[in-house]
Amino acid sequence: QVQLVESGGGLVQAGGSLRLSCAASGRTFYNMGWFRQAPGKEREFVAGINYSGARTDYADSVKGRFTISRDHAKNTGYLQMNTLQPEDSAVYYCAAGSSAVPIRRKNEYQYWGQGTQVTVSS
Questions:
Q1: 96, exposed or middle or buried, with CB in 10 Å at 0-12, 13-18, 19+?
Q2: What is the pLDDT of residues 106-120, one digit of tens each?
Q3: Radius of gyration (C-alpha) of the chain in whole angstroms
Q4: Residue 109: CA atoms inside 13 Å, Cβ hemisphere, count?
Q5: Which pLDDT tens digit goes with each residue over 56-76?
Q6: Of the candidates 38, 64, 37, 69, which has an alpha carbon nearest to the alpha carbon of residue 51?
Q7: Which of 87, 85, 66 is nearest to 77 (CA)?
Q8: Rounded to whole angstroms, how far apart are CA atoms 112 and 106?
């Protein structure tokens, strides 16, 4: 089992930044992803990273603004979010899986955190 705990969400003005953290414990996992879900919408892929961190993938809507990373020494993943916009408001979830590459499909992830709320005011 892998336990994931997100933190770092909050309220920020448009144009601001937040850094989300995902602290992991338990068995080893390989790829990590960040997803988000706004009210009334499907959970959508935001960013993914492989084990080494050498391969990343981003949704077009966040490319150039968000950066995914991970620190194995701290067993923690991060999502740096810059130039936030109101449409970025959602509950953000981190997820972990056994793939060797970043994955966009949410049903490919075996473990999920509880989510952290991000609200961007205009």
A1: buried
A2: 999 999 999 999 999
A3: 13
A4: 27
A5: 999 999 999 999 999 999 999
A6: 69
A7: 66
A8: 10
